Amino acid sequence: MPSAPTLFHTFLETCARHKDNTAFIYRVGEDEQRVTYVKFFEDALLLARSFKAAKIRRGDKVFLLSDNRYAWIVTDMALQALGAVSVPRGCDTPASEVEYIINHSESDFLILETDKLYNDLQPLIKNLKLKNVFIISGAEKHSWFEKVVSYSKILEERTIEPRDIEWFKGLAGHIAPDDLLTIIYTSGTTGTPKGVMLTHSNIMHNVRTLPPLINLGPDDLWVSILPTWHIFERAAEYIGMASGSCLVYSSIRTFAADLETYKPTLVATVPRLWEALYSRITSALKKKDPKKARMFNALVAVSIAFRRNRRALRGHLPVFVKRPAVAVLAGKLRAAMVCAALYPLYVLAQKKFVMVQEKFGGRLKAAISGGGSLPPYLDEWIDAIGIRIINAYGLTECSPAIAGRGLQCEIFGTIGPAVGETDLRIADEQDRELPRGTEGEIQVRGAQVFKGYYKNDEANAQAFTADGFLRTGDLGRLTLTGELVITGRAKEIIVLASGENIDPTNIEATLSVFPFVQDAVLVGQDKKGLGALIVPDLEKLREFVREKYNQVLGETEEALRDKQLLDRLREEMNKLLNAKKGFKPYEKLQNIYFLTKEFTLGEELTNSFKKKRHVIEKKYRDIINRLLK
């Protein structure tokens, strides 16, 4: 485990220890670029030298507006070297939010990814009191009068003298563990973005505790697709760097090809990507050969049943209440009989699933899913086809790691235990610890927990308990052996007019089983019953309606308002929301409504693909009122 006190110390140690290893692979157009750790060191040095000349100083806030690219991590390390504080966001951040964050964070410097971004934001930039604007990728712009300069200009002088290396390494002596490293503004699922202050000490907790969960080493290779500024991806890049491993910057367009080309050992993803992958694979099979698709789905069902019963036999399923020994033994006997009956088909299934595994390059030891809760059906499906999924749980406020089902954890259907050096408890509304097996709020304490929200005393007072635990706002319970299961979101609870409390996330995850449901939002606050706003995949909806009801769905919006069709589809959905699956009678849908516009990042979705419920409910208030009169 790294013993370095700060992330910059870690960077220096890695670049010295693994200097000839490939650190990053990325493309410029169609040309592949490979960067060694020694080149990474040199690039960070050159940029830090240029930033110093531009008067960036210790403690200065620097707003970084950029998406995934090698220059992002170089910029990050250069700013760390100088003791400056990065304030990062993605290129799709609305201008109003950019303005708010720059002003609220008191950023003196602005770094933009492209000329286009600069041109788009120029009216805003003119009204901001910025000392300098830097453009990562653009023409050789250089106008100190306008305080705008491109990287290509400030990096013209690339000569590195021994004294430069000595100066750069010496900067580590001025950086302490409790120094502020970054302020990350949450995307705001509930309102105005809040600035999460993270120190070197916060991040170093993750660097120490996460690599053992995935047996991370210098021979590992990651394929990166998530927003680099987002803490989940950022932490993955930091722990990858600390281990001396290699990271490939990918994109939505090239992701599938990059998996086969680079054959990664690790990928970090979010549930929404897995949902898209599941939908793509099942739809492609069905289109190509419906008979083979049915066979594939049958083999997946066999694999799920076999693996579930094998885990029951081995005691690898979550247990919340101690059961009599006789009941445990009877359960194991039943599981053994099911396993014996299914084993021949299970062996066949594993042979068939090799083709799916090859799509991931054939070397994947683990896929990490974070940034949201992975629906149980997806967790089982991914596991069934032979991909080891590490279901992780965290928050930006925790840098982000709280718990993870690492390679050593055998208890499926859970998030796994708390990561190292972490106190995790389940508490009631009075912040009293609850016994294992009982649902309550997840609360956490440890070195990874943030310093607080920037300039927001009210939010800070609400965030922590009297004894220093962070209130996550998430609901969960612990198994008898200490693994965490997330059961919902306290802050997203819908309260019906009758007073019944409903967690929308479980119902939404269930609705997403339908192939035509691209996204679903449960509504019903203060109403008599529940409704669902559904973003449909129209092609799959037409296919479903044709096969299920022998009916042709029209091309017009009016076709989506057909009451008879909506009622039939609602009945299909309510069949899944049954008591056997743990749903209450009042959790059935009263009505559904198909939206004609997809949710988009920066509007209805945060940059980590979480739904902004307050935005959606406000935008569709009239529809919700008509839906649930």
UniProtKB/TrEMBL annotation:
GO MF entries: ligase activity
Pfam families: AMP-binding (PF00501), AMP-binding_C_3 (PF23562)
InterPro entries: AMP-binding_CS, AMP-dep_synth/lig_dom, ANL_N_sf, Chloroplast_AMP-bd_Enzymes
The protein's name in its UniProt record: Long-chain fatty acid--CoA ligase
Entry keywords, A to Z: Ligase
Positions of the AMP-dependent synthetase/ligase domain: 13-454
Organism the protein comes from: Desulfomicrobium orale DSM 12838
Gene3D superfamilies for this protein: N-terminal domain of ligase-like (3.40.50.12780)
